[in-house]
Design goal:
The protein is elongated. Helix content is about 45%, strand content about 10%. A three-stranded antiparallel sheet has the order 1-2-3. It is mainly alpha-helical. It has a domain of about 55 residues. Strand 1 and strand 2 form a beta hairpin.
C-alpha cells in the first residue's frame, strides 16, 4: 500500500511540473488531494470503483408522482442515469415506458 502512495505522489509531482512547464495554472482551492472517494458527475468515485451518489438516489426517491407524460419521461431520464446500478431497471420501468407511447392513455393517480 505504501508503494502505491509513493507512486501516486511521484505521478502527482510530475503532473504539477508539466503544468508549470506549459504555464497551466492550477487553482489550489479546487484541488482535492489524498481523498478515498469523491463525487463526479452524479457518481461517487472510490478505490473500489464507481458508485451511485446517495444524494442522487435520494432525489429520485423524493420525486413526486407523475401527473402527465412529460413527468414520466423526466422520471425515466433521471432513473436511467443510474441504470448501471439497477440490474432489473428495464423490467421494473416497463409500465412507465408504456405510458409514454402515443396510444397510451395517462390517468392521474394510476400509480397510487
Amino acid at each position: 500500500m505504501q508503494e502505491a502512495v509513493v507512486d501516486h505522489d511521484r505521478k502527482l509531482k510530475e503532473l504539477i511540473d508539466r503544468c508549470r512547464a506549459k504555464h497551466i495554472k492550477l487553482n489550489p482551492n479546487k484541488i482535492e488531494l489524498k481523498k478515498t472517494s469523491m463525487p463526479y458527475i452524479g457518481h461517487i468515485l472510490t478505490s473500489d470503483g464507481v458508485q451511485a451518489d446517495p444524494a442522487k438516489v435520494q432525489a429520485i426517491l423524493e420525486m413526486k408522482q407523475p401527473t402527465d407524460v412529460a413527468a414520466v419521461r423526466r422520471i425515466l431520464g433521471t432513473v436511467n442515469y443510474l441504470a448501471k446500478f439497477l440490474p432489473h431497471l428495464s423490467q421494473v420501468s416497463e409500465p412507465l415506458r408504456q405510458l409514454t407511447k402515443k396510444e397510451s392513455t395517462f390517468r392521474l393517480g394510476q400509480f397510487a
